[in-house]
Amino acid sequence: MYTVPKDINRESAVTVALIQSDDSIQRVMEELEELRLLADTAGAEVVDSIVQRRKEVDPATYIGSGKVKEIVNQAVELSCTLIIFNDEITPTQLKNIRKIAGEDIKVLDRTGLILDIFAQHARTKEAKTQVELAHMQYLLPRLTRMWTHLERQMGGVGTRGGPGETQIEIDRRLIMKRITQLKSELEKIDKQRQTQLQNRKEEFRVALVGYTNAGKSTLMKSLTGADVYIRDQLFATLDTTTRKMEFPKGTKILISDTVGFIHKLPHDLVASFKSTLKEAAEANLLLKLVDASSGQVAHHIQTIEEVLMSIQLDKIESILIFNKIDQVTDQTVMKQLKIEYPQAIFISALRQLKLNELVDVIQNIIEKDFITHTFKIRYSETGILDNIYSSMIVLSRNDDDDAIDLKVRGKKSDMKSVKDKLKEMRTGLSETLGI
Fold this sequence. Notes:
By secondary structure, the protein is an alpha/beta fold. The protein has helices at 25-42, 65-77, 91-101, 110-121, 125-139, 148-153, 172-199, 216-224, 267-272, 274-281, 297-310, 331-340, 355-367, 385-391, 412-433, and strands at 2-3, 11-19, 44-53, 82-85, 106-109, 204-210, 241-246, 252-257, 285-291, 318-323, 345-346, 371-378, 393-399, 403-410.
């Protein structure tokens, strides 16, 4: 248990974690620290954290009614209005805990807190629809009239993004109808996204994935110069942003920034963001970004791998990248990371340190299946030059009296496309001349 000074301008919260026999104490403490950051992002300050050891979860109140009463008394003593549980708790447990907590204290679990943050940060129609769907699916089994006083009297953290104060008493039939509508809207959005992906099918695509707040948006800005939303918070961006990037050699790629991952990311939320995550599913290369200064590197990497596996993206080629190396003060930490992850790349996206190394590695991956070819382009065929320059790397060019010799490197498919167009142009010319 620890207690910190309270900020009177923010909601005050007590966090609660359960340690069972097979749980690692260090892991639970890391999760509590993450929960504190989540609460901070949502607009609450954690002033106390309580850890309870139990052999098994209490089916009625998760941690036992006596411990719940103790926590509620502690919250009252500290003038806290919010109790947050580290795990997702069942509707029955939530209902019983709220009965004990009374009307002056809100009770949330980790999933409810994450949904609250997503509700704050959703900006586009797609993100808002995805968040509302996840929230409705979370709310459905928890829909009881006892929520009414929480919505009407309290507000603040944990009461955003849901059905609203006047809608909390609507029955399950209307909730399920709304879920159906939201799923239909997301299917339409998904079809539009599929069309966009189809239009970009021939381009090499890179997706940024990783733990939330690892610096994905900052890396995107540093690589592409794109004006993207950046904020030092968990889940600052929910919408997928795609931008073009041109390499020094002339190669062009598309880079997409995706929603961040986190430990115990709610399943309904992952399912709701399925269309957004398809940007990563269609990528040729994943850049797995990790905050080198977090102190929880192994935990973050494990979470990334677990989420990628859960959405079946673990087979896509990837590069492990440690970001924020400028914030690592202990060089022995850096040395240990380089020993444990010898294939990884170490950068600072903010300071633009060692980005050239990352660019070179990406370029090498793109070019590994490239072939070299020389085209002889007649002056009557120069209209095809734009196609060649935009899709291939031009190694050399020689303009003589009869034609232009271009030595290029590129994908076999692009080479074939140019050859087919030249053949078509020459066949058309022969037919025109009657040859």
